[in-house]
PemI-like protein antitoxin of a toxin-antitoxin system
Amino acid sequence: MKATIRKMGNSQGVLIPKAILAQLGLENEVEMEIVNDTLVLRRPRQTPRQGWAEASRQIAADGDDTPVLGELPNADDAELKW
């Protein structure tokens, strides 16, 4: 299948037909790389921040969620009036 490279704002792009996107299971985001002079698009291997919520719960359950730097007052804080 051939496709036309089109101007899109300050960039250029290729429109991918909806049927092809559906067939590949691509939705909002793709990983893109060049392999042997070929542009390869694929589904992201994992979603951003995948597993962060569970890791945060485990850290809190272990009691290891105390601030690392502690309290750091600014030098001029004494002059502020709240």
